[in-house]
């Protein structure tokens, strides 16, 4: 059972779909684009906001710390209990992220939206606010290829599997790959012009 699960996860990670504005990109280029967006946040003194529900909230919290500690990029999850309970009580849980972002987020920032199903209303609403604020957006989703989140980001990661455990583990693996590559300087922003990545990065400016 365990080995079967590992092999199944490997298969879905290998088949992960990466896209920018509905244009497919390779996994390596997706990592480079992710790094370019993080570097823009750092250069512009912005903030990387990470949001999710349940297991995805745990992933968001973990990588908010990694962005802060390993990448030296300011980050925030909006998961403070006072914020969550206040906004949920006053406006409804579907606005728990979008309402604070209306005040907080700017075009210097980055929103990383994580949802296994890709259709959580509070995540979709938050992305809509980020779009209105001209903020760059990265999405991580799974389940159906028709899920709305899959096409909402400047960079999208989608796992073709309808299993919460595999999707969440896949998202965790992908984000750890991003952070570990950053720490090892394996993908340097100065080298983005190699491997025909310049055009893809320019589309995100």
Structure in words:
This protein has 205 residues and is of the alpha/beta class. 49% of the residues lie in helices and 14% in strands. It is built from 8 helices and 7 strands, in the order H-E-E-H-E-H-E-H-H-E-H-E-E-H-H. A 7-stranded mixed beta sheet has the order 2-1-7-6-5-3-4, with helices on both faces. Strand 1 (17-20) and strand 2 form a beta hairpin. The N and C termini lie far apart (45 Å).
Distance between the termini: 45 Å
Radius of gyration: 16 Å
Q: Considering the protein shown, what is the CATH homologous superfamily?
A: Glucose-6-phosphate isomerase like protein, domain 1
Helix vs. strand class: alpha/beta
Flag low-confidence runs.
187-203
Mean pLDDT across all amino acids: 87
CATH architecture call = 3-Layer(aba) Sandwich
* Helical percentage: 40-55%
Tally of individual domains: 1
Q: What is the C-level CATH assignment?
A: Alpha Beta
Largest sheet: spatial strand order: 2-1-7-6-5-3-4
Number of helices: 8
- Which fold name fills CATH's third level, the topology? Rossmann fold
What fraction of residues sit in β-strands? 5-15%
Order of helices and strands: HEEHEHEHHEHEEHH
Largest sheet: 7 strands, mixed
Counting DSSP E segments of at least 2 residues, the number of strands comes to 7
Principal-axes geometry comes out as: globular
